[in-house]
Amino acid sequence: MALADKILRLKREKRAVVLAHNYQRPEVQDIADYVGDSIELSRKAMEEKDAEIIVFAAVDFMAESAAILNPDKKVLLPSAGARCPMAQMLTVDEIKRWRTHYPLLPLVLYVNTLASAKAYCDVCCTSANAVEVVNALDAETVLFGPDHNLAEYVQEKTGKKVIPIPERGFCPTHLLFQPEDVQALKAQYPDAVVMVHPECAAEMRKIADFIGSTSQMCKYAKENAAKTFIVATEEGLLHRLKKENPEKRFLLAYEGAVCPNMKLNTLERIYTALKEERHIVTVPEPIASKARKALEKMFELKIEKRLKRDNHCFEEFHTSF
Ligand code: 5XR
Ligand code: SF4
């Protein structure tokens, strides 16, 4: 029996759900119950009331968030080595140091942080809602970590002062994108629309037609009439974009833009993880409850804002997140 079929059978037997991040290998996305960004996936897991096991095909911090938001389920990370280097860049000691310097400023942490760091922040954000979260805060200056490019983007969009902590936290994969590669593709496809992830450097944001998270790119590509898109984010997203929009053309802005940690989750590892029920991701109390508060605050801030703007769009909040 093919490996994919073996996984599907085991999944049914064990009442497991496989969630795959947008950056997973195509064959992993294809056997998953849901494909999305980490928070979308964690929320999907919350809706799966009958599921006992969640196989979270992504990296460490994403599985941690799923475990925090789904304390009654067994969350498995198929590859124990799948760690996000950006999340490693902000330690608790570093946070404490900045907190001592700026005791009165709110600390906003991108979800790309470990649970131990989240436990020390006031509110979390994703790349999809960072601007809204910072806007909703009653403060003109905020501490923001760990991605300094996302911090800079949020500063531009909100007009608030956004202090990056650490000073230069970054995603090694998104920093590979260069404007010259996009310009070369543009010369070949002059009508192409350029979509850029906010973890990319400022020069990339300047040449973007659209800046957004992976989930926002999917939405934008579906709704935009253009036929060709140049995409500056991890290559895994192109599989989903092509699948959802078979009549459109998607070009990766730089062929080497691969997150090696995301790619550690192979079908073989997913099968073994499910069979042996490993590697179980747990977040000890009280870290989990503090981190959960910061995640829940993010959901609340966004709800309040939406409700203020339009009383009818509560549903929209859930689907567009
Ligand atoms: O770079 C990432 O880790 C991916 C991503 C995304 O756009 O999917 O930036 N993840 C964050 O937005 C976390 C949200 O789920
Ligand atoms: Fe981390 Fe970048 Fe990989 Fe996302 S793409 S998991 S931020 S290293």
Which properties best describe this structure?
46% helix; single chain; Rossmann fold; binds iron/sulfur cluster; 3 domains; four-stranded parallel sheet; alpha/beta; 16 helices; binds 2-hydroxy-N-[(1S)-1-hydroxy-3-oxopropyl]-L-aspartic acid; 321 residues
Structural notes for this entry:
Helix 7 links the parallel strand 5 and strand 6. Mean pLDDT is 94; it is low at 309-321. The protein has a four-stranded parallel beta sheet, sandwiched between helices. The chain has a four-stranded parallel beta sheet with strand order 6-5-7-8. The longest helix has 23 residues, at 287-309. Helix 3 (38-47) runs parallel beside helix 4 and helix 12 runs parallel beside helix 13. 46% of the residues lie in helices and 15% in strands. The chain is an alpha/beta fold and 321 residues long. The chain contains 16 helices and twelve strands. The site of 2-hydroxy-N-[(1S)-1-hydroxy-3-oxopropyl]-L-aspartic acid has 13 residues, from helix 3.
Short structural description:
With 321 residues, the chain is an alpha/beta fold. The chain has three domains: 99 residues, Rossmann fold, CATH 3.40.50.10800; 107 residues, Rossmann fold (3-Layer(aba) Sandwich), CATH 3.40.50; 85 residues, 3-Layer(aba) Sandwich (Rossmann fold). It is 46% helix and 15% strand.
